[in-house]
């Protein structure tokens, strides 16, 4: 907070009111509703409901489809985060070294940020369309027997590939900015001290980028949890048999298509707990960076 | 900096490959969108553009039948524009005001209100879609721009961006303003807002892209074709690709995909510097 502040009775309330109003109607109310619903058992038409305490949670946690979805979500998130961070770090380091043409490469690699996840999903799944997809044909001509419609691993491969493609540009921007923020004098000293670019990277550059990498890890996990909804909905729809449905996608499928309000709400609450942990973690980290 | 010839060569090779990895899918989509559907169906995806650019894009833009709905791509682009701009403007104004109250005032409810705002980060719209849908339905806001935009604004990311920025503004500024007799509203309008112009622009650009690219919420709450955004439109077209036993409309689906991507990509590329500034400086 500021050392100097205004002391005024009405003005701050006036300024904060619009945000609080919108949050109350469109956030607090539905959030409370989600919590309440997670303790209710409703019939399919929402005509009657019964308070069942934690039964929805028990049902969710013991159901094999939720467990499978949870395992997929974790594996998916970790793979997407690690792969997209590794690829973008590699590209950013090379882009940072290039002096001529650096600006063009930057533009070529960063615009992907603006692509909507479902658009990326559509582009990706078209490449794997059995009728005309070049990648589908290429994979099968190499003898892979690639079939994402029936094989869960192949479907997961496609979803991960699209999610990584979509995320590389964001990570690239952060890494390149981080690299360019390293003082020239440090880089020159490093060049004098060790000639091998690989050693220089691991002993000097990477430790300096560690906070950025950690920050991006949190951002990427959040991305893989939530923003990949559009990718999955357009590409595999969770098929085959729910094997590529992330937890968020399952909330949608169970709640909207399956009309299981209690179960969907309980899943929401469980997700909320997971996000809370992640956010608090992230926020503390951001706060620390700001002070320093 | 010393660099061997070999290192320079590999640098460029890797960057070219990386750029191709990013661009090829979109280029193939564009090239394929300029052929007839029969041609694509027989020959697969294309790397070179064909001669049907104006026919395909014209049909998609102005003829509602081509998009399988009762709405043309032009109308969908308009809806996306309303969502993107409405979301960005609303978010910037509301966040700036709330952050100002939090940073510059000492008031009784400051701490609880701050925590209420903070809590919105814990529960993204994606997790509370079912009850959010019910609330918006109860308020009679389904299929309205208000119902489309306001629930999306109800998260405090922007507030934290501005909070961080305000905290980096030197205290002396406020002291000087107070000596000059400026009240809190004068200080906000005459000093803080002009000082934040680049920050506002940067956040505006990021939020416009975020708004334009919204998917799940518009998917649920717009059942009326007239309110479809273009991102929703491509899903509808894609879903109906195989309908009617005809040759699938791949070129038109691709054309719609390209149109959904061009506006946000242009914004990001043209305002590159501001966009990067906003993204990197605010989130860190």
UniProtKB/TrEMBL annotation, chain A:
Domain called ABC transmembrane type-1: residue spans: 70-282
Subcellular location: Cell inner membrane; Cell membrane
Domain of life: Bacteria
Transmembrane segments: 12-32, 70-93, 105-128, 155-179, 200-226, 265-286
Record has Nucleotidyltransferase as a keyword: no
Assigned keywords, A-Z: Cell inner membrane, Cell membrane, Membrane, Transmembrane, Transmembrane helix, Transport
Function: Part of the ABC transporter complex UgpBAEC involved in sn-glycerol-3-phosphate (G3P) import. Probably responsible for the translocation of the substrate across the membrane.
Keyword Transcription: no
Family classification: Belongs to the binding-protein-dependent transport system permease family.
Alphabetized InterPro entries for the sequence: MetI-like, MetI-like_sf, UgpAE/MalFG_permease
Subunit structure as annotated in this protein's UniProt entry: The complex is composed of two ATP-binding proteins (UgpC), two transmembrane proteins (UgpA and UgpE) and a solute-binding protein (UgpB).
Membrane topology: Multi-pass membrane protein
Protein name: sn-glycerol-3-phosphate transport system permease protein UgpA
Automatic annotation (TrEMBL), chain B:
Subcellular location: Cell inner membrane; Cell membrane
Keyword rRNA-binding: no
CDD domains: TM_PBP2
Cross-referenced SUPFAM superfamilies: MetI-like
Cell inner membrane in keyword set: yes
Gene3D superfamilies (alphabetical): MetI-like
Annotated membrane topology: Multi-pass membrane protein
Annotated keywords: Cell inner membrane, Cell membrane, Membrane, Transmembrane, Transmembrane helix, Transport
TM stretches of this protein: 12-30, 81-102, 109-125, 145-166, 187-212, 253-271
InterPro entries: MetI-like, MetI-like_sf
All copies of domain ABC transmembrane type-1, residue ranges: 77-271
Principal location class: membrane
Range of residues in the leader sequence: none
PANTHER family, alphabetized: ABC TRANSPORTER PERMEASE PROTEIN MG189-RELATED-RELATED, SN-GLYCEROL-3-PHOSPHATE TRANSPORT SYSTEM PERMEASE PROTEIN UGPE
Role, per record: Part of the ABC transporter complex UgpBAEC involved in sn-glycerol-3-phosphate (G3P) import. Probably responsible for the translocation of the substrate across the membrane.
Subunit structure: The complex is composed of two ATP-binding proteins (UgpC), two transmembrane proteins (UgpA and UgpE) and a solute-binding protein (UgpB).
Protein name: sn-glycerol-3-phosphate transport system permease protein UgpE
Organism: Thalassospira indica
């Amino acid at each position: 907070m500021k050392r100097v502040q205004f002391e005024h009775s009405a003005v701050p309330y006036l300024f904060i009111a619009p945000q609080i109003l919108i949050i109350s109607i469109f956030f607090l109310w539905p959030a409370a509703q989600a919590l309440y619903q997670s303790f209710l058992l409703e019939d399919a038409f929402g005509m009657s409901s019964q308070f069942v305490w934690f039964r929805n949670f028990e049902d969710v946690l013991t159901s094999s489809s939720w467990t499978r979805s949870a395992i997929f979500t974790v594996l998916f998130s970790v793979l997407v985060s690690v792969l997209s961070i590794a690829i973008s770090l590699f590209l950013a380091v090379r882009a940072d070294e290039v002096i001529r043409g650096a600006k063009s490469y930057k533009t070529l690699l960063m615009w992907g940020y603006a692509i909507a996840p479902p658009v990326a999903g559509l582009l990706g799944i078209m490449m794997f369309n059995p009728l005309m997809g070049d990648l589908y044909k290429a994979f099968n001509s190499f003898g892979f027997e690639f079939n994402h419609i029936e094989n869960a691993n192949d479907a997961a491969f496609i979803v991960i590939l699209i999610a990584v493609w979509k995320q590389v540009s964001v990570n690239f921007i952060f890494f390149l900015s981080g690299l360019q923020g390293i003082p020239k004098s440090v880089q020159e000293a490093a060049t004098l001290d060790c000639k091998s670019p690989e050693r220089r990277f691991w002993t000097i550059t990477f430790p300096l980028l560690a906070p950025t990498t950690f920050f991006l890890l949190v951002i990427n996990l959040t991305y893989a949890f939530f923003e990949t909804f559009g990718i999955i909905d357009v590409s595999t729809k969770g098929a085959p048999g729910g094997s590529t449905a992330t937890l968020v996608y399952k909330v949608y499928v169970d709640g909207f298509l399956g009309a299981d309000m209690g179960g969907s709400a309980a899943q929401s609450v469980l997700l909320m707990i997971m996000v809370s942990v992640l956010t608090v973690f992230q926020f503390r980290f951001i706060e620390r960076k700001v002070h320093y | 900096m010393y660099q061997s010839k070999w290192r320079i060569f590999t640098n460029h090779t890797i960057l070219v490959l990386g750029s191709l990895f990013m661009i090829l899918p979109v280029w193939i989509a564009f090239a394929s969108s300029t052929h007839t559907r029969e041609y694509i169906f027989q020959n697969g995806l294309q790397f070179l553009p064909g001669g049907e650019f104006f026919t395909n894009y014209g049909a998609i833009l102005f003829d509602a039948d081509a998009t399988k709905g009762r709405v043309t791509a032009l109308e969908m682009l308009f809806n996306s524009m309303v969502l993107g701009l409405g979301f960005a403007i609303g978010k910037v104004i509301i966040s700036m005001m709330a952050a100002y109250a939090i940073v510059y005032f000492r008031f009784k409810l400051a701490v609880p209100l701050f925590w209420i705002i903070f809590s919105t980060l814990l529960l993204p719209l994606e997790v509370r879609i079912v009850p959010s849908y019910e609330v918006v339905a109860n308020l009679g806001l389904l299929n309205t721009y208000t119902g489309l935009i306001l629930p999306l604004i109800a998260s405090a990311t922007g507030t934290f961006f501005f909070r961080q920025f305000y905290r980096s503004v030197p205290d002396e500024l406020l002291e000087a303003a107070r000596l000059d007799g400026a009240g809190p509203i004068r200080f906000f309008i005459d000093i803080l807002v002009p000082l934040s112009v680049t920050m506002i622009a940067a956040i505006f650009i990021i939020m416009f892209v975020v708004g334009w690219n919204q998917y799940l919420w518009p998917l649920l709450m717009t059942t009326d074709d007239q309110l479809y955004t273009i991102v929703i439109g491509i899903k509808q077209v894609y879903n109906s690709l195989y309908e009617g036993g005809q040759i699938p409309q791949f070129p038109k689906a691709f054309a719609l995909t390209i149109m959904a991507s061009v506006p946000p990509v242009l914004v990001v590329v043209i305002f590159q510097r501001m966009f990067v500034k906003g993204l990197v400086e605010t989130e860190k």
